[in-house]
Amino acid sequence: MSKIWFLENVNLFKILCPHKFKDYKDCHNFTHYSKSDYIYFEEDASNKVYLIEKGKVKLGYYNEDGSEVIKAILCKGELFGEKAILGEEKRNEFAQSMDNKTSICPIGVTTLHDLMRDNQTFTLKIYKFISFRIQKLERRLQLLMFKDAKTRLLDFLDELCEDYGVCCEETGKLKASHPYTQKDIANLIGTSRPTLNLIMNELKDDGVINFKGKEILFLKKSA
User: What PROSITE patterns is this protein classified in (predicted)?
Assistant: First the structure.
């Protein structure tokens, strides 16, 4: 079962974006970003949450030595900046556009609280989403600190399988069409692209996966 079971068949953008609501439609605008534009920085005021209409956004922070740590890469329909809902005052991460035509729906925390107050079912989904996001990031950071690159990749592939996997009629195996480039995956698991390519090809040679572009076929469970 998908780890995002509580958001299955729910596009956050479609049901939460203020332009869907009569009381907010006239005062609501989308914000457009080019590749590498920052949506917010660390220490910025945390007074909005954001929905991705289109494009791709990465979340991360910088170590003391200036190196970048990527916490998540998000795509159309996903929510970020959600800790503002819980009372966060300043950002502890940056958010940066990864596409030339990224379109974001910013929602003020007060507006979001009003919308959530009128929809208890969706409020529950939002809080479950936040809980899941925190657990997922904590696990990824633990992997970055304590596990080797192959273990980190295998864990990431498990996520892809659960979040994007569908049964391939021809083979009966799970196939995942995902939104990540090789550079995205390397950033997310904290390794270099050459190392990622080496491990991916090793898994392919071992008959664990097959891959082409942004599609991965899971042939068997890794040991």
Answer: CNMP_BINDING_3, HTH_CRP_2
pLDDT in tens, 148-164: 999 999 999 998 888 88
pTM, full prediction: 0.74
Which three-class secondary structure state does DSSP give residue 164? helix
Domains defined for the chain, CATH in brackets: 12-139 (2.60.120.10), 147-218 (1.10.10.10)
pLDDT digits (tens, 9 = 90+) for 56-90: 999 999 888 888 888 888 888 788 998 998 889 99
Helix runs in 18-73, H state only:
22-25
Distances (CA, A) of 172 to 53, 76, 159, 168, 211: 33, 29, 19, 5, 16
DSSP string across 140-209: HHHHHHHS-HHHHHHHHHHHHHHHHEEE-TTTSSEEEE-S--HHHHHHHHT--HHHHHHHHHHHHHTTSE
CA distance 143 to 155: 9
Query: How far apart are alpha carbons 71 and 198 in whole angstroms?
Result: 23
